[in-house]
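Retro notes, item 3 of 5
We never archived the inputs for the NDP complex last cycle. Fixing that now. Sequence and ligand:
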Amino acid sequence: MENYFKEKRVWITGASSGIGRALAIAFSKSGAICILSARSLDGLNETNKLTVNPDLNMIVPLDVTDEHQVKEATKKLVEIGPIDILINNAGVSQRSTTESTDMSVFRSLMEVNYFGVVSLTKQLLPSMLSHSSGCIVTISSIAGKVGPPYRSGYAASKHALHGFFDSLRSEVSHRGVHILVVCPGYINTAIAHNALAGDGQKYNKRDDENANGLDPDDLASRILHAIVKKKTEVYFGKFEVNAIRLKRFFPGLLTKMLNRKFLKDPKK
Ligand code: NDP
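Structure as it came back at the time:
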């Protein structure tokens, strides 16, 4: 991995906290130049301070649901030089049953987690294709392969990414652009606090599953490794990763296990 990322320009969305922050630190340690995006300027500045080369990085505040902002930011960054790696990491989760969730929440989850990713990918793709090089990494979830309780809108938005990127990969991988989709299990970040409740308010509570999950720095180093190895889809987590195999080979058993999980924790 040594030197692979040296002086590569890596654009990370959702870089103001959690996994995006851990990725920025990991990339900077590997010699990359990071472009840090999210809505919170304070959060981005905080992340930048934690990198090894804050003066080389760029901070580009951005709401991925705002197509105009995405277009302008991409135009300016590409004028400076090619972006080698795009990390579509910005995302928001959900903690609510389907029947208690407003339609507006289903739409917001789709706007951030799916359309935000499509919009940025589409803006940057022509530049990558014109150089016949580049890598687009998207942070999906185990919930992008298996629908757990309280996540129907979130799981749908993450499942949608797989269809989009499988198709895109079939269009561009022979033209020099590498597509990687990462499915993390539970990671110890503020994702539950920032998740949407059924009424669209922040859930604002801790989840034991996330608190006991994988460390974001550990996840980040596995993601860098997967990029170097030119993987197409990877699953990183603890026991929950087994849900993917269970769904494939024993779907009835998985449903029973998820029903039990729902009954044990019906408070959401
Ligand atoms: P955090 O809540 O810590 O981080 C989410 C990031 O997304 C923040 O930097 C936030 O920044 C940014 N973001 C949210 N909405 C927007 C928006 N409209 N425009 C731009 N940026 C936005 O959670 P994680 O770090 O855990 O999540 C990162 C990714 O990993 C997400 O896609 C999530 O779905 C995925 N994931 C996380 C798992 C976990 O267990 N933690 C498991 C599986 C997948 P700001 O508010 O400043 O805009």
